[in-house]
Amino acid sequence: MRAYHQSLLMSMLIAACFFLAACTSQSSDLETGTKKDSLVLAIGSEPEDGFDPTTGWGRYGSPLFQSTLLTLDRNFNVQHDLAVDYNVSDDGLEWTVKIRDDVKFSDGEPLTIDDVIFTFETAKNSQSVVDLQNLKKMEKLDSHTVKFILEKPQSTFLYTLTMLGIVPKHAYSENYRENPVGSGPYKLVQWDKGQQLIVEENPYYYGKKSYFKKLTFLFLSEDAAFLAAKAGQVDMAAVPVNLAKEKIPGMKLIALDSVDNRGIMMPFVKPRYDSEKGVAIGHEVTSDPAIRKALNIAIDREKLVEDVLEGFGTPAYSVADNLPWWNEDTIIEDGDAEAAEKILMDAGWTKNAEGIFEKKGIKASFALVYPASDQTRQSLAIAFKQMAKKIGIEVKTEGKSWNEIEKVMHTTPVVMGWGSHDPIEMYHLYHSKYRGQGYSNANYYSNKKVDQYMDQAIHAATQEEANEYWKKAQWDGETGFSALGDAPWIWLVNLQHLYFVNEHLNIGGQKIQPHGHGWPVTEFIADWTWDE
Amino acid sequence: MLAFHIGKFILKRTLKFVTLLFAVVVLTFMLVSLSPVDPIQSYLGAEMMVVSEEQKEEIAEYYGVNQPKLQQFFKWLKMFLQGDLGTSLVYRQDVLSIIQEKFVASFALMALSWSMAGILGYALGVIAGMNKGTFADRAIKLYCFVLASTPTFWIAILLLIVFSLWLGLFPIGLGTPIGVVSEQVTWLDRLKHILLPAATLSVIGVSNITLHTRQKVIDVLDSEFIRFARAKGEEGFTLFKRHVFRNTLFPAISVHFASFGELFGGAILAEQVFSYPGLGLAIVQAGLNSDVPLMMGIVVFSTFFVFIGNLLADVLYTMIDLRMKNGEAI
């Protein structure tokens, strides 16, 4: 080798060694100590618009830095948090809430009813996901009591009171979302945008003290979170189904039930033109109730969970399985091809030479659309197609972008997914007044009795009363929007939310998770413990 | 004399830049306006079903969905000319501060990898050029061609798996250590976190400068004065030091400046894999959610950035050219 070669190579090698030497002496990123009182979690996506409840932070699960007036416990029963008492007037228009007088924000200032009023006003004007359209005005009755006055009765206003964290009027500015002073269990220490969030316990918190003094949330992609778990860098990581069967020493996989559901929305009416909205609607085949009922019975939901979700899911019979407003009588016996075919034959369908059902010259055939970017929905569509074929119904699957889906969803079945902790979701999905309004009731379903029950649910004065009506709307013995009744939807599965958790970490019992995974799992973080 | 020429050149270029910027701005705005993305659907996702129509109209107003596009454009232009880039719809923060925050991190990554790629690429190009036809030369050429066609994120993931997971030498990502408050973060920490992403980008970024330098070295070695030097008995490193180096360094640097644009794109990909904070995620979010102010801000900024790179490259070239023309030694 020539001289200059050697010196060049030498200098590169030396540089490499320098870097390696500097790096091998790295200390562990995790704290080592006798009592483990801090956690590192890679579970959620970063809220781009920050930690401001008035723009939608913390809607599900504890807002971490703030507290809400009311909460729902693990069984969805209303519990008091900031509020010590609340009641609803007979006409359902006035909600009076009285709050505690011993609460301080993390900066030591007391929380008063002015802060509550300020929060709701700010949220109302935020043009965000927080919907307070129905809030007419608020009256301050005394230093710890407020009366919310609604435009129309709305039993689901209760859920707003459990989802909106209270912000301090005195410490609110346009930078609040980066510096969220609140009355919640934790306060923000540092937020490295796009990377991590470090929080520590709020010394002024009035509630149960958490076992963990410090939490670090990492905002990593699913793959990076898994890698971090494998490298022993995090105590908890959210993972997708395809990584769930991996083994990580020292960690266990926890699968949480959810209402993160998937189902097929079937056009309910015969083909025609909606002149008001200016769109074509309806489908000749899916508008036949026999088709919808037959498919509901023919589908083997357990098999879908096994094949598509690798066992990490549960069958779905509605949009709100296992929630308090769900009518459990609507579970159906499925996977029954014989019964399904009988329904079709009783309705006048007969099999043609190819084995596909036909009626009055029309083949039992339709296109099924799914969002092209979503692999789970694609797999579900394909599995559905195969199960439908077994009972003589021809399904053609097509992947489309959301933009294209919006254009065809009134005339074509679509694989969709919903699932909320607020029953108003059912109202928007099934009430006839929402037909054709965006994604709400996009299949033009209508049933006067169902409308009536749901209106009564909205007007109800208590949760119990409301839930009774929501259940009747699903099935009252004769009709309803469930698979027993009109079956405008074919609900398929509920996903499970999967997390790798350090085997010493005990996250306790969890609520049925909503559609989105991640932050909701931190709702009861005050109850988590570390068992050595 | 030289300074005057350079000055004139920069001025002409700047005027061209202004026209270019205007064209880019108009085109970008048109594209974003024509985007089929429904920002309300992107923003709400599954919460779509618990939000009332009236509130959705408010959100539509916030995203400027119903505003006439031309009006929106002129409003933006007016603000822009006054130095105001507006407020991001997704981050609810002003665009300039977002770009400042995120660009500083991206810039550190880009600067480090650009320098590393430059030094490594030049060295490899010289070795290849001076040993044309040998195994070393062939190996280096192969390396360049293979790497030029390799996806950035693939190299990134490979490095991550080997050096972070298997060997545990480097952190799995981020810009600073996990759970450590910023006051306690050291320069060494930051270096450790930036090294793998920078290595990814430099490993790929060498191809251009290596091959270009190699060719330049071969050209120089073919020239008259080299033959004269060899006749005097010079060879190897001395030959390089005295003649090859100063004739190939400037061209190498200017070609490397021109790769500024690629740097931007590559940095964004590397950031994704290493969860390194930077402009990468911001651009994606802006696009997917039709965040017009942020999108326009980032586009203006990157156009300017690439322009500076190309300008520096061309200025250097002009300097070399002028010197050569005037018979001055480079």
Walk me through what this model shows.
The complex is a heterodimer of chains A (532) and B (330). Chain A is an alpha+beta fold. Chain A is 25% helix and 23% strand. Chain A contains twelve helices and 24 strands. Chain A has helices at 3-24, 113-124, 157-163, 222-230, 289-298, 301-308, 337-346, 375-390, 402-408, 424-430, 448-459, 463-474; strands spanning 38-42, 70-72, 78-80, 83-88, 94-99, 135-142, 145-150, 186-192, 196-201, 214-218, 236-239, 251-265, 272-274, 279-281, 313-315, 350-351, 357-359, 362-363, 365-371, 394-400, 414-416, 489-502, 505-506, 529-530. In chain A, the strands form seven sheets. In chain A, strands 1, 8, 9, 10, 11, 12, 15, 21 and 22 form a nine-stranded mixed beta sheet that branches. A four-stranded antiparallel beta sheet of chain A has the order 4-5-7-6, with helices on one face. In chain A, strand 2 and strand 3 (78-80) form a beta hairpin. Chain A is globular. The model of chain A is unreliable at 21-33 (pLDDT under 50). With 330 residues, chain B is mainly alpha-helical. Chain B folds into two domains: 23-81, no CATH class; 95-326, MetI-like (MetI-like fold, Orthogonal Bundle), CATH 1.10.3720.10. Chain B is 76% helix and 0% strand. Chain B is built from 13 helices and no strands. In chain B, helix 5 (95-130) packs antiparallel against helix 6 (135-148) and helix 7 (152-166) crosses helix 8. Chain B is globular, with a radius of gyration of 24 Å. Chain B starts with a helix and ends in a 5-residue tail after the last helix. At the A-B interface, helix 1, strand 8, strand 10, helix 4 and helix 9 of A face helix 2, helix 3, helix 5, helix 7 and helix 8 of B.
